[in-house]
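Support case: user asked for a sample of complex input and structure output to validate their parser. Sending the pair below.
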Amino acid sequence: MTAPLATRGVGHRIGSRWVVDDVSIEVGAGEWIALVGPNGAGKSTLLSLMAGVLPASRGSVVCEGRELAHWPPRERARRIAWLAQAGDADGEISVRDVALLGRLPHHGLLGSPDATDLTIAAAAMADSEVDHLGARRLSELSGGERQRALLARALAVEAPVLLLDEPTAHLDAPHQRTLVRTLRRRVATGVAAVTVLHDLTLALLADRVVVMVGGRLEAQGTPDDPALRAALEAAFDHAFVIRALSQALPVDQPANARAPRWIAVPAC
Amino acid sequence: MSAASQARPWAWIRSARGLALCLTAIGLLAGVMGLAAGSEGWSLDWRADGDLIAAIRAPRTLGAFCTGALLGLAGAIAQGLFRNPLADPYLLGSAAGAGLGVTLVLAAEGSLGRIIGGVAAGWLLKLGLVGAAFAGALGGVVLTLALARGAGRPLVLLLCGVVVGVMAGALSDLAVMLSPAALRGRQAFLLGNTGFLGWDSVAVLAIAGAVALPLARRSARALDALVLGEATAVSLGVNLPRQRLLLVSLMALATGAAVAQAGLIAFVGLVAPHIVRRCATVTHATLLPLAALAGGVLLLVADVAARSLIAPQELPVGVVTAVTGGLYLLLLLHAGTGRRP
């Protein structure tokens, strides 16, 4: 079976600098990948390339065996949901309408949301805990509330590939937990997820961690792989150390949920 | 705001429509003498006034509504497309471009009129004016976008719009200098005036509206998606280059038609969508027609005010909207209502 999404030597150049340089990764169905790396490592750019919102200067992105650039825009949009880095969206439309925009690839510009779309959007709003904010405007929300509203939009696409750029930005601990649970529930149904994360303890909950430095792929592996953990510490200039948790924390999720095993401790 | 914004938009549509009908009635009754009590402005002797209403006041009132509606629609499109609450056809160089197009046609009119003559020339002129205004509006906004290198930076975009406006104005001045015959027409034009609107103008305006509004509404969901950013809109499958081209053309059509008939009327396009958003939380499918309705109502109010404020003299309606709209814009900038800069 072909992978839902894969990059083949993909690169993106701004001026003479390669922001993303020759990166090849493959996301499997039912797999959660955490994309980590220091500031300016090219994580967001790579995610934009994978979403097809940024053209690749070199290499290609392949979705279900077919190059992303060859997909009709709407069909591509139905397969890949992308949550932009926080900060760009601000407007006078209601949270409910924002979530419904996630259904746009399904009914198109000229169609209008039907009962199924409304149900799915409502479920996505419940998943990101903004169902009580439905009538509020995006511009009236706090940073965390807005982030959750935008997340609901991405979830409402119900795409087999979910690309989230710093989804935990502005979120407090309970909402971070909700996000991880929602993500795991979706991944358990076969969704392929890639998340850019700055919280390394959260990143070490993923099935696979991909480390980027200076636009290049530095290392990848499962959190249980000692080589991966060593590469991770080195990528962040040993500003933290990864410790094993002596006691597994309780986990109340079914399917492929895994108890947190690792914690990143700042080495100040 | 939240209580008001949760109200169904239909309630607002109904009240705006009612207001529009009342204003239309007032517009029909008010003569050039305005509403000043005791003036002949209030007279309604059907035998004497019937012809007057049918020939002058009805097209003027209807035309004012249509002009305002087109400007409101153009403003709503511009603000959505450029993700900029301060966008307005007047501030984006498109109105100034339309003005330049019209001036050029007026300057060429003298020779054209002599060749063809009569009614045919009148209609040809009308069509030429609309075409030139459309081309000028399109050229103005494209030049502004090129100078600003896209619409990403709101204040840069506005600044470039001002630059294009000044350049188009200077070129218009030059055209008038070379062909002084165009001076009188252009003067009325610069001030923005509903006094010359006849039934032929109403027809042109109505056709432009009938084309622009339904087509713009077909792109309403794309405008909604643009609220979340251009990249997110692309990720949702929106064909951005095509939507941009379509929406800029529709904005130019609406602006061009309005400017060709009634001259430069500032700020209606800026203020109308703002008023709608202040009253209700709506998506663009509702915002576009509501902004048109609000624009129409605004210009009807301004038109009645222009006829009444210094009656028995008449103010050009563009002066009324420029002063009140300018104050509104200043208020908006100063109040810092927490919206995007």
